[in-house]
Amino acid sequence: MASEMDPLYGLGPARFLVTQRPWLDLYGVYVRPVAPFGSASSKPYYDQALIHRCLPDELLFEVFARMTPYSLGKGACVCRKWRYTIRNPVFWRSACLKAWQASGPLENYKLVQSKYEYSWRKMWLLRPRIRTDGLYVSRNTYIRVGVAEWKVTNPVHLVCYYRYMRFFPSGRFLYKNSSHKVKDVAKCMNFRASKADCVFSGHSTLSEDKVEAAILYSGARPTVLRFRLR
User: Fold this and answer.
1) CA dist., res. 85 & res. 75, Å (int)
2) Can you give the pTM of this predicted structure?
């Protein structure tokens, strides 16, 4: 038995080939940027993309607090630090209370607890809302009979006009029918518009994804518009 085990005792230690990975040694090492090649400036060069690393968390919080929710969504794609900071419920709570201020704070608090699992961000993403940072535009057409010429032809005209609506967080909105483009109408879509601009105002209500807007024309009965958000 001993003679059979002698060759095994003569074996040397096993050796394994390890692939060298020098880039692993750079993890956690901060490399200071250098000035661009050929630059005559003696000042150190700092990458502007890394400026958020120099800002304290308090200042970064104040910057995010003044951004719109749509800008916050874009800012969350910048880096991991921004994404974690923007997930703070304070930003989304103020956005939700402003977007649905017509419902009242108490109703919004009840809704976020019962339907959205205490997450204001989830409420902002899933609950239907009316955007108040622009104009809603719909293009409408109809056919109108023209004046016959020489009693030979019976022409028709394809009339095109646009319906503009601008909503406000308080529940009020502005309404205007015009054949002009957006760049010409957007200037007068405010409460300072004159009567010559033919801008009418009204009140709107939002129930789930259904919107009811009541327009009051001068000298006429209120007109109710109903549409669904998608």
Assistant:
1) 10
2) 0.59
